[in-house]
Amino acid sequence: MKQTRSNNRIQKNRIKAKQNRTRKGRNRITKGGATTPEHPHVCPICLENLTPESVRTKCKHEFHEKCLIGWCKTQEEPNCPVCRSDIKTTCTEIMPFDSLDIFRYVGPGKGVRSQSWNSTRGEYNYEKAMEMIHNPKFDVNIRTDLGDARGEHSLFFWLVENQDKELLAELLSHKDLALDTNEVAEHSGKKWVVDLLKQHKKVPKSLKKLMM
Ligand SMILES: [Zn+2]
Ligand SMILES: [Zn+2]
Fold this sequence. Notes:
Strand content: under 5%
Order of helices and strands: HEEHHHHEEHHHH
Number of strands: 4
Low-confidence stretches: 1-36, 110-120
Largest sheet: 2 strands, antiparallel
Bound molecules: zinc ion
Structural class: mainly alpha
Mean pLDDT: 79
Shape: elongated
């Protein structure tokens, strides 16, 4: 009987010690900052401490870059997870950008869109393609083979193939565009291409005579 009582006491003490440990632990977390505006040192998305590389939005809320990228990806019109402010600019800035993604959105132009379009490459999306061309991170001289036996070609080549006049005009108006003379020569028989090249003063010097 005596023994049991003392055992109980020991157990009670153990429980007390455990509670103290837990409480101390909680205090430590709270000191570091727990959530949102009252605790600015913690990422409001994952509740972990922020690092010096964290991202600050215009509404002055801070997040881990990878946490905010994850959030931006799920939002059609990205809002701040804390205050719901428009954070589209921040999302655009931090999103990993791959110029090759444009080939998911370019497809047969209006003239040929009725033909079967290989949807495994993506969904034709004129607005998204246009948005990518306008992004300062976009490499206008990107090349890919698109799984085509003819090998690697530039975006210029594929837009000509797709007869996508609007996107081609947009591409040609880009100051950093360096056209591949061989590709231009290959398409020098297409009047609409030549017209666009002339319009945007992008006829390669060596082909000027050919395109007169
Ligand atoms: Zn985070
Ligand atoms: Zn905010």
